[in-house]
TrEMBL record:
<dbReference type="InterPro" id="IPR051599">
    <property type="entry name" value="Cell_Envelope_Assoc"/>
</dbReference>
<feature type="domain" description="DUF218">
    <location>
        <begin position="165"/>
        <end position="292"/>
    </location>
</feature>
<dbReference type="GO" id="GO:0005886">
    <property type="term" value="C:plasma membrane"/>
</dbReference>
<dbReference type="InterPro" id="IPR003848">
    <property type="entry name" value="DUF218"/>
</dbReference>
<protein>
    <recommendedName>
        <fullName>DUF218 domain-containing protein</fullName>
    </recommendedName>
</protein>
<dbReference type="Pfam" id="PF02698">
    <property type="entry name" value="DUF218"/>
</dbReference>
C-alpha cells in the first residue's frame, strides 16, 4: 500500500495476527468478515498457525501497518478494548509511484477509476492548500525528557511488596526500555511514604524504597531512578506531589509524564492528576493501567473503593 496506518491501543488488550505475502490473500478470502473469538474453529486455528507473528497490544501501545481495516474497533467483554488508527502518506518517490500505478490493478477491493481520480484531486487540493500557508517553525526532535511515575500500592511488615507493585514495575521497565531505544532521556520516579496508622506500609522505611527494589529487579538501572521518591500516603498526595515535582524540577525540559498504575485505579488517578496539574498550569499526564494482579474478593474490594470515590466526584467534590 502507498499509505501507512498508525494505530493506538487505548485500553484493554488486543491480539494481532500478521501473515506473510504468500498466505495473506488466502487467509483474507477464507475468513473475510469473521470474528475470531473463543472457542476458535478448527479452520481459524489452522489459519492462526500460519501467522508469521502474533503480537499482543497492551494499553498505550502504538503500531504501524498497512491494509484496509475499520478505523476504530471496540470489543466489550470482561474489560473494554478500544483501538483506533489514522492513515498517513509519506511522499517518498516509491510511494508516490505506487499511488500513480494504482489503477493498473483490477479485482475485489480495488478503487474504481472515478474514485481514484477523486482521491487524486483531493490530494492535489490538500497540497495546494499547504503551499498557500506560511511555514510554521517546528523545533527539531531530539528525543525529549520523559518521566515515568509508578504509583505506590502496599507492602507487608517485612517489606515485601504486593502483586500490584510487581505488575506495575514490569510495565515501568518495559516503557523505560522502549523510550530509551527511541532516543528519549528517561527517568523513573516512585511513590509511597510510611505511616503506621495506614494499611499500606507499617514499617519504618518508605514504601517507594521497597518499590525501587522491584523496579531494579526488572532491569531499570539505579542511576535512572529518582532519589528520593514521593512520600505520598494516598492518590491525592501523589497527584499534588507529582505536580510540584514537575513544576520545580523539570517544567521546561519535560516532554511527557507517564503515570503507571493498575487498571482498577486508572479512572480515579487520571481525574486527580488532571485536576492537580491543571491547578498549576501544567499539561495533564498520560495515565496508563496494567492488568490487576489481585483477584476475587481483593479485586472486588478495590473496585468498590474506586466506585465509591467516583460517586464522590459526581456529587461535585474535587478531591
Amino acid at each position: 500500500a502507498w499509505w501507512s496506518n498508525v494505530a493506538k491501543n487505548f485500553t484493554g488488550y488486543k491480539l494481532v495476527a500478521l501473515w506473510g505475502p504468500g498466505d495473506a490473500p488466502e487467509i483474507v478470502e477464507r475468513h473475510e468478515g469473521e470474528l475470531f473469538r473463543r472457542p476458535l474453529s478448527p479452520e481459524q486455528m489452522q489459519s492462526l498457525s500460519k501467522a508469521a507473528i502474533i503480537a499482543l497490544l497492551e494499553p498505550g501501545d502504538v503500531a504501524s501497518f498497512s491494509g484496509g481495516l475499520p478505523h476504530a474497533t471496540v470489543v466489550v467483554g470482561p474489560e473494554l478494548n478500544l483501538t483506533a488508527y489514522e492513515s498517513l502518506v509519506n511522499w517518498h518517490p516509491a510511494n508516490a509511484g505506487l499511488l500513480l500505478r494504482g489503477l493498473a490493478r483490477r479485482g475485489k477491493g480495488v478503487m474504481t477509476r472515478g474514485a481514484m481520480h477523486g482521491l487524486l484531486d483531493d490530494i492535489v487540493d490538500a497540497l495546494w492548500q499547504q503551499c498557500c500557508v506560511s511555514r510554521v517553525h517546528v523545533q527539531p526532535f531530539h528525543g525529549g525528557d520523559v518521566l515515568l511515575l509508578q504509583l505506590g500500592s502496599s507492602n507487608d511488615d517485612r517489606g515485601n511488596v504486593d502483586g500490584e507493585v510487581r505488575q506495575r514495575a514490569v510495565k515501568t521497565a518495559s516503557l523505560w526500555r522502549s523510550l530509551r531505544a527511541a532516543g528519549h532521556r528517561v527517568s523513573v520516579l516512585l511513590s509511597g511514604g510510611k505511616d503506621p496508622d495506614r494499611f499500606f506500609n507499617h514499617t519504618e522505611i518508605s514504601h517507594w524504597r521497597y518499590v525501587r527494589e522491584a523496579v531494579l529487579e526488572c532491569g531499570v538501572p539505579a542511576e535512572h531512578i529518582a532519589d528520593p521518591g514521593l512520600e505520598a500516603l494516598h492518590t491525592v498526595d501523589e497527584a499534588l506531589m507529582a505536580a510540584e515535582y514537575v513544576r520545580r524540577n523539570c517544567k521546561n525540559s519535560l516532554q511527557s509524564l507517564q503515570v503507571i498504575t493498575s487498571d482498577f485505579h486508572v479512572a480515579r488517578a487520571r481525574h486527580l492528576f488532571h485536576v492537580a496539574f491543571a491547578a498549576v498550569g501544567l499539561p495533564a499526564p498520560l495515565v496508563l493501567g496494567v492488568p490487576d494482579a489481585c483477584e476475587g474478593e481483593a479485586l472486588r474490594a478495590h473496585r468498590a473503593k474506586e466506585a465509591s470515590s467516583r460517586a464522590f466526584w459526581l456529587r461535585g467534590f474535587r478531591v
